[in-house]
Amino acid sequence: MNEPQARRRAPAMDPEQRRAMIVAAALPLVVEYGPLVTTAKIARAAGIGEGTLFRVFTDKEALLAACLEEALRPDDTLAHLEGISLDQPLPDRLTQAAEVMRGHMNRIGDVAGALASVGKAARPAAPEAAGPEEAGSRREAGLAAPRAALTSLFEPDRAALRMAPERLADTFQLLLMSAGRSGAPHPVEDAELVDLFLHGALTAGPKRPEEGGDG
Quick one: which of 129, 113, 144, 107 has its CA closest to 24? Predict the structure, then answer.
């Protein structure tokens, strides 16, 4: 008789890999259930025991905070922005960038909204949160890298721009963040927003008083 083959064990993960795996499994559950999601449900989704989960995170609040921090990370957004071809016309580049940024902001909104759905008391505190100055510094650091990627999208057209690519990228980023807020009764499409940004609200130059009327 043939000897039964020994069951192959999955390769061991280092602590950071296991942490990332748990957070990835938890994120869609956090969006669906908010802070009411159980650690048992998260552990099942991650394919691990609940005890293993608590060897990585001290408690559920720490896990929820890690989920929020992951949603705020711009890594995937940066990779997509940097992957936009500079051979395309500027409007096409910016429309793709707007789609990428909108997706990033939607992910943040989904997770943050879910964690706020049962009240502020249930939301996890930001890890190692300090005073307003540090919070502002963290926020600026999170915006700086996407802004640099947006700047590179304007760079090929520098000679035709009315402002420096850096200033245009800063303004465009602020516009995207404002347009991305939920609740607008008539949300502007990405291509419309880009056209408005590049060409303004008027279909032609302003009409001077002497040009109107008869005589």
Answer: 107
Please, are residues 37 and 29 in contact by the beta-carbon 8 Å criterion?
yes
Q: Is 86 helix (H, G, I), strand (E, B) or coil?
A: coil
Q: Quick check: 151 and 169 in contact, CB under 8 A?
A: yes
- The structure's pTM equals 0.72
Q: 102 and 190 in contact (C-beta within 8 Å)?
A: yes
Query: Residues 98-150: pLDDT tens digits?
Result: 999 998 888 888 888 888 865 543 444 544 544 555 545 556 666 788 999 99
Task: Tell me the C-alpha distance between 180 and 101, whole Å.
Answer: 9
Nearest to 155 by CA among 93, 214, 83, 74: 93
Number of residues that make up the chain:
215
Distance (Å, whole) CA 134 – CA 130: 6
Write out the DSSP string of 147-181: HHHHHHHHGGGGGG-SS-HHHHHHHHHHHHHHHT-
